[in-house]
Write a structure and sequence with these properties.
GO cellular component, one term: mitochondrial large ribosomal subunit
Keywords: Ribonucleoprotein, Ribosomal protein
Mean pLDDT: 81
CATH topology of the domain at 22-99: Alpha-Beta Plaits
CATH superfamily of the domain at 22-99: RRM (RNA recognition motif) domain
Strand order of the largest sheet: 1-2-6-3
Helix content: 25-40%
Protein name: Large ribosomal subunit protein uL23m
Region (Disordered): 141-160
Largest sheet: 4 strands, antiparallel
Distance between the termini: 99 Å
Biased composition (Basic and acidic residues): 151-160
Number of strands: 6
Structural class: alpha+beta
Amino acid sequence: MSRKLPFPLGRKEVFLPSFTITLLRTPRLPPRYATFIVPLNLNKLDIRDYLYNVYGITALSVRSYVQQQKVRHDRPDAILPRPRKWFRPRAIKKMTVEMEKPFVWPEEPEDFSLYVEDSEHKKNGLGWDKETFDAARKASRAENELMQPDADQKPSADRETIAAQAQLLLTGKEVWKPKWEDVGEPEEVEKELEFPKI
């Protein structure tokens, strides 16, 4: 016997949804609340229907709000960002659902090396590989800082190494040796050239 629901189910059947719903980790909310990032065209009835039909979760109430993004210089995918061309990214819609049963997030892993060192995981290409991820994120942030409009006003990263090299030269710990490239025999620059007649 089916249980009586506190809300009517939707009648529009969607077999292959073409949207993405993201569950956010919200430690400040009680366990009976879950927050999702949803498409802008999704409404409260759709999210309630989706959660019930896909996961069997009964939603008691739904709150939604649209979060506007900050205005920034040009598009993020622009090759040469223009400093005075303004661009506002698309807004983000978030929905907070009160569920009938509580949901508790699993604990975040603290030791990431265990999964990478295992030879079976390495062979299959599985594992966390957090060091590579952190290095890629750091390089991406450094690249983004170089693309900012005020990047030329900040001191360069090479400034400290150049200052350290100059200090070693001034104290006499290192001797400056010019490095010339050997390009071969000297050649006369201004010489008579014969061009073929056309």
